[in-house]
Hints:
The structure is a homodimer.
Chain A: H1 3-7, H2 15-27, H3 36-49, E1 59-66, H4 81-92, H5 96-104, E2 106-114, E3 125-126, H6 144-163, E4 168-174, H7 178-190, H8 194-197, H9 206-223, H10 230-237, H11 240-255, E5 259-260, H12 264-276, E6 284-285, H13 295-302, H14 318-336
Parallel strand pairs in A: 1-2, 1-4, 2-3, 4-5, 5-6
Helix pairs in contact in A: 2-3, 3-14, 5-14, 6-10, 6-11, 7-9, 7-10, 7-12, 11-12, 12-13
Amino acid sequence: VRLEEALQNVRTLDREAMALTRKRLDSIIKPLGSLGMLEEHLVRIAGITAASRFDFSHKAVVVFCADNGVVDQGITQSGREVTAIVTENLATGDTCLCAMARVAGAQVLPVDIGVAAELTAPGILRRRVAAGTRDFSREPALRAGEVAQAIEVGIDLAGELRSLGFALVGMGEMGIGNTASSAAVAAALLDLPPEAATGRGAGLSAEGLARKIEVIRRALELHRPRRDDPLDVLAKVGGLDIAGMAGLCIGGAVYGVPVVLDGFISNVAALAACRLCPGARDFLLPSHLSAEPASTAVLAELGLRPPLQAGMRLGEGTGAVATFPLYDMILAVYNEMVTFAEEDMEAYRPL
Amino acid sequence: VRLEEALQNVRTLDREAMALTRKRLDSIIKPLGSLGMLEEHLVRIAGITAASRFDFSHKAVVVFCADNGVVDQGITQSGREVTAIVTENLATGDTCLCAMARVAGAQVLPVDIGVAAELTAPGILRRRVAAGTRDFSREPALRAGEVAQAIEVGIDLAGELRSLGFALVGMGEMGIGNTASSAAVAAALLDLPPEAATGRGAGLSAEGLARKIEVIRRALELHRPRRDDPLDVLAKVGGLDIAGMAGLCIGGAVYGVPVVLDGFISNVAALAACRLCPGARDFLLPSHLSAEPASTAVLAELGLRPPLQAGMRLGEGTGAVATFPLYDMILAVYNEMVTFAEEDMEAYRPL
């Protein structure tokens, strides 16, 4: 669907389903609220899906893969050819995310939304909007039409996944240079100085980090993205992966799909989505706190607290998939546990 | 074995196995160290088990169950009869921990180390040292011999689990009143004021919390436990579950078993273990940050940072079991991923 149309079809959380789910959680023999965020996330999923019964057996991680022209400025540890290599490895099951997803019982769905090189592996979803972005240190990364199209790819994917029965959708990315575009978008949306928004990505040296900060500083001065216009920010310094992920967040709110965020890049995308579509915020599930330095500021702006704080910074959706078993666990509690009504345990009931 | 003997047989981490495991992790195609604590925990397990190959298919959570005489002071939400009910439910698979452990593929092993009531369910490990503690607001909770015996139960369990092939052992507890004994032990070991060490447990009212703090304050004044003598602290204001868990921590260091901590109570037990046996610290794996207020101080003293921060406060070992899938995930990465040597991806290799 077109972005404008999607924005007019955003749902709100179903309060009745949330109340029913909370009521059942509170009737289970355990101290009230004692599973913390696990309970809160299940109640949120009730609101998202407008249901108080759940089946999480079908889970997926959608990995938006795209190249970034700014890589020409030497601000990454790896060369741009790695984007295509890892995208193919995602399709053949040969990345860290894939190994972790097998444990979690989740599908990995790589999406070519803007990889520069030709891809040959089957199993990659072909949604290429452009062959990577332009170098934002010299010109705007994307045209307005490309931004909208990438967002629409994400929105449509949410609808397709919903109709295929996926109950939890993790959101990941692959693209050399995308912590640079994310840092630039975060700096623009949050009005942060580039040095506060920018981190080492996959492991830059101190010298590389200084260069990356300087490139972002000059790009923001060159383009002056409008802080209150997320489409302008994405066009000037964003990426196709970020735009696609923002679309998935909006699509979650349109189609009632629980979207599990990953780390820094996905959080920046979620922030762009919420600026464009404030109602999308309620449909997001945080997973982990990335080691990238601006993650805390972005999550605070979103008002989201992630359950996992393990110093991870791999990307691909690894943080999202790492939290999937927690959903299986709270659902097992929800479905299998006896309630106070079923067992004579008034002594244990909260006052 | 006797406690004194165990303390003389504590291992140290195997640095060679750790180096081999780190070397393989660093050879895998991914940014160096990018799985954060997951990698650190696997390297620690290498040191604990003196091996660089792993099999986590056999996992267990040992739940130390015991009553606390101080419950007579009305400082808990539930009555003491609930300890026995939940202990039996642990054996029949009917608690939140059991539901979560089924997802994680882990065995739940309830241990009666001091439940006051008679238990009838099969599947409970019978290791009763006493029928609960005495009311520490009036007299010392335990005799010195009882403390040593409970610690030895934990040490021996570590050895038995090791010989049965359990590769990861979570540590949980069940005992109405045990956040009170844990708070008293934490206050004594860390020299904290009782109000800083004491929380609401399963959900006390503000009035109940004030009473609990006052009971702990008076007990510490009455008994004056010696801060530098963990056995004295455990005898005066501890519990059989805490002593058993401290023993499991020591046993982990004697038999080379990775012990996954749970929340506040288990962290307090680990602190007591490390005061008695500083070498035990290296054999501990933190899981989650409990919502009990003194958890942060206890973990800081142990120098441990837990990966999961989800506001959980249920106990039983639920925090430990919630992190078990992370071990399966890092092991899948470790075993299944290609290395730089196997694939021509020098471009992606860290500098």
